[in-house]
Amino acid sequence: MKITVFGTGYVGLVTGTCLADVGHDVLCVDIDEGKIEGLKNGIIPIYEPGLEPMVVRNHKEGRLNFTTDAETAVKHGTLQFIAVGTPPDEDGSADLQYVLAVAKTIGQYMDGYKVIIDKSTVPVGTADKVNIAIAGVLAERGYQTDYAVCSNPEFLKEGAAIEDFSKPSRIVVGTDSEQVCELMRECYSPYNRNHDKLIFMDVRAAELTKYAANAMLATKISFMNEMSQLAEHLNVDVEQVRLGIGSDPRIGYQFIYPGCGYGGSCFPKDVQALARTADSVGYDAQLLKAVEAVNYRQKETLFAKLQRAFDGDLAGKTIALWGLSFKPNTDDMRAAPSRVLMESLWEAGANVVAYDPEAMNETHRIYGKRDDLTLVGTREIAAEGADALVICTEWKAFRAVDFNWLKEKLNFPVIVDGRNLYNPEEVKKAGLMYYAVGRADSLRSCI
Ligand SMILES: NC(=O)c1ccc[n+]([C@@H]2O[C@H](COP(=O)([O-])OP(=O)(O)OC[C@H]3O[C@@H](n4cnc5c(N)ncnc54)[C@H](O)[C@@H]3O)[C@@H](O)[C@H]2O)c1
Fold first, then answer.
1. For residue 20, what is the enclosing H or E element?
2. Pocket flag, ligand 1, residue 101 (CB < 6 Å)
3. In this predicted model, what pLDDT tens digit does every residue of 160-172 receive, in sequence order?
């Protein structure tokens, strides 16, 4: 099939590449000329495991192409995926300006039947807005053609995006058109051989499904973080509680790790946007607002623990950070807990020495060069001579540590572990003070 994908970010690039990899003829379009130039030369703008060789191979074999020319892009595909960003607006609702700009572009260059597919995460009612935007431009042009707008939200996880796209648990399509159902079935048939994963529903239900899925997962995380705070107050080890509840199949082990809060480009903005959607129809979504508030508070927990460890005096201290990305296997720093910690440390007059396996360039891009931030090439260099070590991201490379060695390297024997990676007994045996999240003897963050 001939497919156009608007946006070559995490979702657009993975979607385009995976669809090309199963044999479709894909043209990816972006307004960012640097990104498109890079992609044509095999330079991938993001870190996503397995993506680079797939992009290079499919581009070389001619199934995956890149352009900034919107007219060529619109004329190319019968299917037009919109996978551009939907960042939070000032009030937290989803900013649809990029989605609607693409809709207008499609209207401007459409030369026959097209299916416009909202893959970006968009609030209920957006397909109608996309429809109206296209109809408006077509009317201005005095051009008439059939087209359909459908919703096909994306559920991939950064860090495992190719696996998720290629082996989806479900493919949700919101449409009331038989023709769209057939075309979407054809598009996704390579992923549908084992059993039927397509779930067809109304457009509005599909739009809400995406937000509901993310809100549910964020709720599990915030719930567990709430338990971790309670555990600290009650002197209980929350890790034992996690095992005790995760074993119940109705609860399960996934998404109940206590930590330093969820980040990334999706959960924070999507929970917020759904709450704003609720506000806009006069419904006070109390649970969603609580999920958001608990997460906000949890992100402050690492700084609060450090403050307690140093009696509130962090000025002039050097704090080592292991992990900067919001989760492992990505370089994405959007809403990462490490950012809240670094910014609080700088405000308190402390210096940060940080290492992350993939997110150093992104950190540099965000914060630039500053005297109180040093980015170093290994976890060992980061720890050397630091006054405390904080684990912000649970990268595999941080899981096994020689604590006796660490004790030697650190100026003060303090570890604040935002991901509960280590066995407290083992760490303490080496003479280190270990403050994890919700574990017995954790320093209460008192936030
Ligand atoms: N990142 C994820 O894990 C994830 C998962 C599921 C859904 N989503 C949703 O998918 C959407 C895209 O997210 P992302 O993380 O890929 O965003 P991103 O910011 O990484 O990429 C968006 C891209 O769109 C491009 N763009 C903007 N306007 C354009 C236009 N008019 N024409 C062509 N390109 C344009 C930008 O230059 C950018 O390259 C969002 O709605 C997001 O919520 C993201």
1. helix 10-21
2. yes
3. 999 999 999 999 9
